[in-house]
Amino acid sequence: MQKYIMSGLFFTACIVAIVLMFTLPGKDQVAEEAKPSMPEVVLDAASAETVVTANCITCHGDQLQGGVGPNLQKVGSEMTPEEIYSLVSKGKAIMPSFKGKLKEEEIANVAQWLAAKK
User: Coiled-coil stretches, from where to where (predicted)?
Assistant: First the structure.
C-alpha cells in the first residue's frame, strides 16, 4: 500500500513539474517585464507639467523640492530618461507604480522632462 502511495505522489510531483515548466515565464520574459522599454516621444513640457501637477506634487512638492518623496529639481543629473521611465512605471519602495494609471507616452514625456532638469 505504501509503495502505491509513494508512486502516486511521485507521479503527481512529475506532472506538477511539467505543468510549471510550460506555464512559468522564462528568463527573457522576466527581464522584459523588469525593465520596461521607453517609447519614443517628442518632449511636450506643458503636458509633462500637467501630468506632474496632477500626480506627483503630493509627494514631491509643487516645485519638486521634495517632501515625502525626494527632491526632483536636479534629478536629470543623477538619472537617465530611461531610468526615470522605469522607476515611474514600476515604482520603488513607497513610490507607487504608474503603469496602468498613466499612458506609456505620458510617463515617457515626464521622464524626458525630468531628465532635462540638471
Answer: none
- Report the DSSP beta bridge partners of residue 99: 102
User: What does pTM read for this prediction?
Assistant: 0.70
CB atoms within 10 A of CB 86: 20
Cα–Cα–Cα angle for 74, 70, 55, nearest 5°? 95
CATH architecture of structural domain 33-115? Orthogonal Bundle (1.10)
Angle at 4 between CA 23 and CA 18, to 5 degrees: 10
pLDDT in tens, 30-55: 665 666 788 999 999 999 999 999 99
